[in-house]
């Protein structure tokens, strides 16, 4: 009886694969992971605008991190079970890992604003908005993987543009800082700008992972 049920489950899973449900499930899980990171980016921005207390944001970010870990774990477990995926499993792992790295650096940013951040975090509002915009573009690109794969590369470029905007904003702020006297506040802000730049690099790596995967799929 148990063997019959096992065969039935395997058959049902294979049928789902044949009908594309597994691929859709994987896409939904990747988007779920991105959604958690978007929550983290929104929380980080709220600290920069002063809408959220830094210590409260740090506590909430710990919860967001757990949600991100759970979302990644579910994706990894699903990849072990399904027969068909929209792109290679290796590329999905790479994409998921890069998305997780974005959240890790956002977590560190929020923690550092609470530990030693400067009094005014206004400089971080625009860079963090670029992160939020980039994550939205990445989500749109992932959504197109099944229904409009030919447009994924264009959508990924939009993510890259957001990353470039973030870097330019950070560089401009650094130039402004270094044009004035060197103070402790300057050093604190520089550290946070470096963290934001790292967020942008990880987001760019996620975009590259998806672009590479789609190029491989087209061959």
UniProtKB/TrEMBL annotation:
UniProt xrefs under InterPro entries: PhoU-like_sf, Put_Phosphate_transp_reg, UPF0111_domain
Domain of life the protein comes from: Bacteria
Similarity section: Belongs to the UPF0111 family.
Protein name, per record: DUF47 family protein
Lineage, highest ranks first: Bacteria, Bacillati, Actinomycetota, Actinomycetes, Streptosporangiales
